[in-house]
Amino acid sequence: MSEEQQAPPDANVGWAEMKSDKGDGYRVKASDYDISDKTINEEANSVAASGPKFDNVSVYWTVGSSGAPSQDVQNRTAITWYKLEKAEWYSPYQYKLSFNCADTYNYSFKDQEPDTYGVNVFQNPGTHSVEYRSKAPIIVSISGS
To answer: What pLDDT digit, counting tens, does each position of 118-128 carry?
Structure first.
């Protein structure tokens, strides 16, 4: 008799459910703080970026890729590391983008579908994650405000 796999008990802890630009569900999480503290309260979402605003910085992050973005992308977006992978088997979503950053921004990540997924980073420490569904999951641009 084979044992049935079970999701870890904390598999859904700390995730905040969101809606993409197309209206599809996705979720976000921060490893070192409760990101839902800011996503629930719209007024709190107005935290200003501590760096300059940027629009549509081009990247080409494929599923299975990870590492430090180019120095130009790091300078413009404050993202110092990323990883795009298939989501864990127990996730309700298909893909997971994780990233570290050196500044606070309300990030928007656009995939090839195109659809856009926002993550309001209001504290720098730790890894931030976005889980989403997409027919074309490659991340092609990043904006921040």
So the answer is: 998 877 667 99
Task: For the chain, state the CA radius of gyration.
Answer: 15
- DSSP-derived letter for residue 44 is G
Q: Which two tokens stand for residue 107?
A: 């990030």
Interatomic CA distance for residues 116 and 135, integer angstroms? 13
Q: Which CA distances in Å does 20 have to 17, 56, 134?
A: 10, 16, 11
**pTM (predicted TM-score):** 0.85
b/e for 26-39, b at 16 or more Cβ within 10 A?
A: bbbbbeebebbebb
Whose tokens are 């008799």? That residue is 1
Could you read off the pLDDT of 79-103 as tens digits, one per residue? 999 999 999 999 999 999 999 999 9
